[in-house]
Amino acid sequence: PTRRDALAYYRGVADLYDIDVRQYETVETLSAVRVDPRPGPAEPDRPARWLLRSAKRSGVVRETLAHAVVIATGYFGRPNLLGVPGESLPHVRHGYTEGHAAWREPVVIVGGANSAVDAALDMYRSGAQVTMVHFAPALDANVKPWVRPEIEARLRDGMIGARFMSRVVAIEPEAVVVEGAGGTERLPATQVYLMTGYLPETGLLEQIGVPIDADSGIPAHDPLTMATALPGVYLAGVIASGNQANRIFIENGRDHGDAIVAHLLR
Q1: Which CATH class is domain 81-196?
Q2: What is the pLDDT of residue 44?
Q3: CA atoms of 147 and 248, how far apart (whole Å)
Q4: pTM for this predicted structure
Q5: From CA 184, how far away is CA 202, in angstroms rounded?
Q6: Domain boundaries, the chain
Q7: For the stretch 42-78, what's the b/e string if a residue is b when 16 or more beta carbons lie within 10 angstroms of its beta carbon?
């Protein structure tokens, strides 16, 4: 399915089950509380254990009590920064949408994995002048096999440029300064895409004391129930994979919801 198909499906599910989806609202703090339910048939039979404080785009702050909280914030919370001058310039992006805006423009893509390859091919097809910069001697080994032949063909015929064994040392308004085996080079670029990956945003988990493994980045949890050591706090989806996003994907992450519900109902 396409992105449009997937979003239509998600909207349909939310409408069918009348799910309370609070768009454009950021959870800022999570704190432990104890609020016992009031007696009565219309009241919940479980105590509230967590207080969420969230803010809307308008600045309005809302507080929500919950018996359980599932952290399913995904993998794209924090981009892997290069830490070079010019990285915050307005023409530098850490994500990719589509290539039409790059028509006839000189573009530099930093990275050599699937996201970099997909962006390079899409912008090439859209008429951009694309150069890839990668610190390794070749594209990553995990590039999708059905994409690899095309990107390798475009690199061979020079339709997409490449600077392997090279690193970006600075970004300027219309150029990228690259350092490689042959010395320093300035590549023209009016658009720069840093496809260098992301790290999950674990701020809420750290705020409430869930341990994060220093090496793997995996928040401490039981993989069978997805429960953390804190009562009523669970993980779902790729955030449970730490720094290795390819450990959890649709096929093995789709069961997290069932595991969480089963644990809550025990």
Answers
A1: alpha beta
A2: 55
A3: 22
A4: 0.77
A5: 37
A6: 3-76+199-264, 81-196
A7: eeeeeebbbbbebeeeeeeeeeeebbbbbbbbebeee
The answer to whether the 3-76+199-264 and 81-196 domains have the same CATH topology is yes
Q: How far is CA 92 from the centre of its chain?
A: 17
Determine the Cα–Cα distance for residues 100 and 21; give it in Å rounded to an integer.
32
CA distance 204 to 255: 23
**Residue ranges of the chain with per-residue pLDDT less than 50:** none
Residue in the block written with tokens 């507080």 = 63
Using CA atoms, how far apart are residues 79 and 197, in angstroms rounded to an integer? 6
Owner of token pair 């009562």: 231
Taking only the tens place, the pLDDT of each residue in 189-243 is 999 999 998 888 899 999 999 999 999 999 999 999 999 999 999 999 999 998 8
- Residue type at 140 in one-letter notation: D
Cα distances (Å, whole numbers) of residue 188 to 31, 87, 154, 157, 161: 49, 15, 19, 20, 12
CATH number of 3-76+199-264: 3.50.50.60
pLDDT of residue 253: 86
- The confidence score (pLDDT) of residue 41 equals 54
